[in-house]
Amino acid sequence: MKEVKINTEFIKLDSFLKWCGAATQGAEAKIYILNEEVKVNNEICTQRGKKIRPGDIIEFDGEKYKVV
To answer: InterPro entries annotated for this entry (predicted)?
Structure first.
């Protein structure tokens, strides 16, 4: 599991995918989210604006990312 540090109280899911390097562009992140390819805390999430906070675990493309 990769730990990804954020410097704010929260980050939106689409921005998080760009921040951690899972997506290169916002449009790419949006497609992954809408295609139900992203899990947040073990549940599929289709809200690209979902607030991701420290302690959350994001799963995408066989990788797990823990927000710290």
So the answer is: RNA-bd_S4-rel_YaaA, S4_RNA-bd_sf
Amino acid at residue number 36:
E
Q: What is the DSSP string of 3-44?
A: EE--SSS-EEHHHHHHHTTS-SSHHHHHHHHHTT-EEETTEE
Q: Write the CB contacts of 46 (distance below 8 Å, at least 6 apart in sequence).
A: 33, 34, 36
Mean pLDDT, 10 residues at a time, the chain of 68 residues: 95 96 93 97 96 97 96
Strand 38-40 relative to strand 2-4, pairing: unpaired
The domain that holds 48 is classified in CATH as: 3.10.290.10
Radius of gyration of the chain (CA): 10
Number of structural domains the chain divides into: 1
